[in-house]
Amino acid sequence: MTTTPFPEGFLWGGATAANQLEGAYLEDGKGLSIQDVMPEGIMTPRTEGPTDDNLKQVGIDFYHRYAEDIALFAEMGFTTYRFSIAWSRIFPKGDETEPNEAGLAFYDRVLDELERHGIEPLVTISHYETPLHLAETYDGWVNRDLIGFYERYVRALLTRYGARVKYWLTFNEINSVIHAPFMSGGINTPKDQLSKTDLYQAVHHELVASALATKIARELAPDAQVGCMVLSMPVYPLTPNPDDVFAALTTERVNLAFGDIHVRGEYPGYYLRSLREQGVELQISDEDRALLKEHTVDFVSFSYYSSICETADRSQGEQGQGNLFGGVKNPTLKESEWGWQIDPIGLRIVLNQFWDRWQKPLFIVENGLGAKDELVEIDGVKTVVDDYRIAYLQAHLDAVGEAIEDGVDLLGYTTWGCIDLVSASTAQLSKRYGFIYVDRNDDGSGTLERFKKKSFDWYAEVIRTNGASLTA
């Protein structure tokens, strides 16, 4: 075996979200979530109620097929699996006083299967699926009452699963609330009508709730590790012009602020200046400040898909199709079929930046390539020859190995959508990320049968050799 920079005990696996694969959207007492009125994905207006064209209502039927899917993950050699718990399975409306036992029992069964296969669970507490009732009745995280409802939810999870789950993430891509307030923060007020004060007050409420979750975990599960989860997107200046350099810094700080607060326990000066200049005055109690300061995270987890460029002169540069969160296209990079620019070195940059900045263990919990896969038959076996996905992941994992050699403390790596699921950004099944092909199409047709792609065996070998096969 060749040498590998990946340390012994490095956690290898994949990641999913409940609303994108479970289905069974009203089964066993589950309530509606915001995802049930988002049939077309992140950037489209919500509907008044659930519609028949929402692929997430069935997803890939993980709710009934979890044992089969976890067995496939084990066959690849996963040592960890990141999944989320659907808040509205546990508290169907979100503001009840007692949890739904049938919902809790489902995740007991999922954990049973993971334990049977020796796979470490990595649980996201809230992953873009705020109960719809909380959005419609309270305007989501704009309302401070959400902190109490979230606390009750977290206590139910830690009481039930605290002895079984070591790694917890409080909110998925918490910084995305700035750009997608309904999906990320359950904020029912339309984005174009939402005041800056209400938006940033909602951000504050989520940050306080995240610190409170860390506090609860230390009370109920002292051996647990709690991390924040942020969307990472390195920002490069479009030119060497100092104005472009500062524009890039300003854009990047919008994301970095969330890690700064989770790790350091207080608002950074640049963030407070930005609020002042926008006329925002937050309502922050002394208790809030104490929670943030005393209950910082144990590690920082993040997603990484692409980088962007920034310029002070917006007449320069081209807006990238995949750049949902600002910036302009990098003229030196290629892009995916959905316009996401492919930048493996950007992942090494992010890892070094985060480690230098925070000195907390890091965890890559999302990375992958969405592509249109074609199911073919070779020697009587149905598969997908996804060499493009293998090349993408190889390049990114090479960058990860370099970052570890640089001295970055990295806990693990979970690819996004390790089994095909419904895309969050477009609500399509044709935008596939997985090592496992699921026979379901954008029109809802298909058998839901699972097939191993070429990348399945490739990733299994990466895991078996702890990354040594990447340089073989």
From TrEMBL:
The record's active-site residues are: 366 (nucleophile)
Gene Ontology biological-process annotations: carbohydrate catabolic process
Q: Which UniProt keywords apply?
A: Glycosidase, Hydrolase
Matches recorded under SUPFAM superfamilies? (Trans)glycosidases (SSF51445)
Family annotation (PROSITE patterns): GLYCOSYL_HYDROL_F1_1 (PS00572), GLYCOSYL_HYDROL_F1_2 (PS00653)
The molecular function GO annotations come to: 6-phospho-beta-glucosidase activity
Query: GO cellular component annotations, sorted alphabetically?
Result: cytosol
PANTHER family annotated for this entry?
6-PHOSPHO-BETA-GLUCOSIDASE ASCB-RELATED, GLYCOSYL HYDROLASE
- What is the recorded name of this protein? 6-phospho-beta-glucosidase
Please name the source species. Answer: Microbacterium invictum
Q: What is the lineage of its organism?
A: Bacteria, Bacillati, Actinomycetota, Actinomycetes, Micrococcales
